[in-house]
Amino acid sequence: MKEFNLTEEQSKISFENTLKSNDTEEKIDIYFYRPIGYQIALFCAKLNITPNTVTIISIFFGVGAGIMFYFPDLWLNVIGMGLLIFANSLDSADGQLARITNNKSRLGRILDGFAGDFWFASIHIAICLRLQNEGWPAWIWVLGVGAGVSHIFQSAMADYYRNVHLFFIKGVAGSELDNTDDLQNEYDRDVKQTSLFLRIVAKGYINYTRLQERCSPYLQKFLKLVKKRYTAELPADLISEFRTLNKPLMKYTNIIQFNTRVIFLFLWLFLNETWVYFVFDLVVLNSILIYMVNRQEKISRMFYERLSLKA
After folding, report:
1. Do 26 and 172 lie in a common domain?
2. What is 265-282 written as a DSSP string?
3. Which GO CC terms are listed, alphabetically (predicted)?
4. Reduced to 3 states, what is the DSSP secondary structure of residue 216?
């Protein structure tokens, strides 16, 4: 296993340099989760703990939170809230650790996405079982599964739009933007040298990326045209205008991912009305998702048509 001893240079990496971008960071993250994650990242770097290990550990805390939400006892729910907050701190730490140690990998990115899915799958299952114990009929699983599927779409598009934004303001090096063509070519090239487990993971990620692309057709046209026309460096005026128009959408990507949904989840747990969480996910967060996708498509269409006229 490769070791990542914390060098003097790495130990001097500032907190700000472990952030992806001020455009895409939420205030709760900047002032709460990221500082905690930064300290965890420095500690893990000193112990040669890898980012992927931190991600896997976060899964256990997140799933533990879901188990605590199964019980109607408020104090057990509060313990679950603490576990979920710590799981998200670890989720912040793994990315910051990767930047401190320069140990970034696509597998790490995939694991990071799976971690959140495991957390919320356990939470949805726990709430459904809890509600059934309280006398709700079996159809509550329809709400639970529907909210779970919605969460997958919401997280996928929020993550994708943030990486598109980072691509325009930081370039390829500062973004984790992938496309299915490149991923499929890599898969076909390496399939014979790759283990069955990694092939399954790679196929899953290709399908995940394909989902993101199918939900953003005009954005795909715009990106393909940009990459074809500007092979070296994006024009400064294009970067500036895209950033100006796209930055307001970043707050919606944060709302439909973790912080806002968890604040309301905690509220419903305190009120012992956990079923409302599913309705909130299906109605409120999906409405934000639809608005976000439509707005992004309008922006992308405008840029695409403008660049096409310059051909």
Report:
1. no
2. HHHHHHHT-THHHHHIII
3. membrane
4. coil
Domain span at residue 32? 1-136
- How buried is residue 147: exposed, middle or buried, by Cβ count under 10 Å (0-12/13-18/19+)? buried
Angle between the N-to-C axes of helices 51-69 and 34-46, in degrees from 0 to 180, rounded to the nearest 10: 130
> Residues 6 or more apart from 190 whose CB is under 8 A from it?
none
Q: What CATH number did the domain enclosing 79 receive?
A: 1.20.120.1760
Separation between Cα atoms, residue 221 and residue 26, nearest integer Å: 29
Render pLDDT for 274-291 as a digit per residue (tens, 0 to 9): 999 999 999 999 999 999
Q: Spell out, as residue ranges, where the chain has pLDDT lower than 50.
A: 1-4
Output the DSSP codes for 190-204. Answer: HGGGS-HHHHHHHHH
Tens digits of residue pLDDT in 52-100: 999 999 999 999 999 999 999 999 999 999 999 999 999 999 888 988 8
Say if CB 224 and CB 307 are below 8 A apart. no
